[in-house]
Amino acid sequence: MGTGGPRLVERRWIEDLRAEEVRLRCAYQRLGKQVVLFTVQLEVMHKDVWHPAVRYDNAHGFCHRDTLHPDGRQDKTPVFVGDVNATFTHAINDPKANWHAYAENFLREVGA
After folding, report:
1. What is the C-alpha to C-alpha distance for residues 92 and 72, in angstroms, rounded to an integer?
2. How many structural domains is the chain composed of?
C-alpha cells in the first residue's frame, strides 16, 4: 500500500528557442497536480557564455518576473495569472512569444 498522499514530482528541461543563441531553462516541483515551486529562465548566448535575461519564479513567497541586466541589476515585477499553475504556464508562454524583444534588450544593454 502507498502512503495515500500525492508525491512530489520534479522536472527540468531546456528548450532551444534559437539554436545556440536563445534558450528557455525550465524547472518545477509539483505535489499531485499543483505546482508548488517553479523557475523559467530565458538565457541569451553572448561571447560563448549563456546569460540569464528574464526569469519567472515563485521564490520569495510570490510569483514574479525578474528582468536581469548585464550590470547585475534586477527589476522584479509581481505576476499573477490565476493560480500558481496558470502563472507557471504564462511564465513559459511569455518568453516563447517575446524572446526576440527580451534577447534584443539584453544584448543592447551588454553592448553587443
Report:
1. 23
2. 1
